[in-house]
Design a protein that fits this description.
The protein is an all-alpha fold. The protein folds into two domains: 79 residues, no CATH class; 116 residues, Hypothetical protein, domain 2 (Endonuclease III, domain 1, Orthogonal Bundle). It is built from 13 helices and no strands. Helix 5 packs across helix 7. It is elongated. It starts with 5 loop residues before the first helix and ends with a helix.
């Protein structure tokens, strides 16, 4: 039986001033029309910001971000991949950034990942834009395996903030899917749970025509 999204939209509307208001509030402001044209430096910047946001106060990272841009050479993946470990000592001493050694090293490793994709795929944005939106789980798996510290929610937030049409398995999203009988509990950490989440959002997209990122937000809003 095909899953319908209208009851979930109605529930979200009941918590947020009506269906029209819920639709407006849930729009993905990070969406990019032509992701393939976004420079790889900007995508590596977003990736790095998501890595540093994990476990830190986002406002602290935001306040320091201009310093990050300078310290990391504008996030040019070719430059960072070339210098690599030679930059570690300088970055660890740079007060303009959050001096977390593991996350600094992850940024340099991710620069190599992005530079490699640039060379093989004609651009990291082009690579992301060509990946089917029906298979976010496959893309997340690739990011986790080839990138550094891009597993779990970090990879999901990177895709959303980069402009890809991404769902996020937040506690409220998972609570809504558990309410609908799609998940056994309000959490999605196993491959089985994430596959069920992916399939449900694909079905909701097919039914409603709404972007997957917006469906994800409406699911969260329907939880209260």
């Amino acid at each position: 039986m095909k899953r319908r999204f209208a009851p979930i939209l109605k529930m979200a509307g009941s918590h947020h001033g009506g269906e029209r208001a819920a639709l407006e509030k849930s729009r993905n402001t990070h969406a990019v029309m032509h992701l393939e044209k976004v420079p790889s430096s900007r995508l590596l910047s977003v990736m790095t910001r998501c890595v540093f946001n994990a476990g830190f106060n986002w406002k602290v990272i935001e306040a320091k971000w201009p310093g990050f841009e300078v310290a990391f050479e504008g996030f040019d993946p070719g430059k960072l991949a070339f210098f690599g470990d030679e930059m570690m000592d300088r970055l660890l001493a740079d007060e303009r950034i959050v001096r977390n050694g593991q996350k600094i090293r992850a940024t340099l490793e991710n620069a190599r990942f992005v530079a490699d994709v640039d060379q093989k795929e004609g651009g990291f944005g082009r690579f992301l834009a060509s990946w089917p939106e029906t298979d976010q789980l496959g893309l997340l798996t690739l990011l986790s395996k080839r990138g550094s510290r891009l597993g779990g929610a970090t990879g999901q937030y990177f895709l959303r903030f980069a402009g890809w049409d991404a769902w996020i398995a937040s506690p409220d999203v998972c609570a809504a899917l558990a309410r609908e009988g799609i998940l056994d509990s309000p959490a999605a950490t196993s491959k089985r749970d994430l596959t069920a989440l992916q399939e449900a959002i694909n079905e909701f997209h097919s039914d409603s025509g709404l972007p997957r990122a917006q469906i994800s937000r409406l699911l969260a809003m329907s939880a209260g």
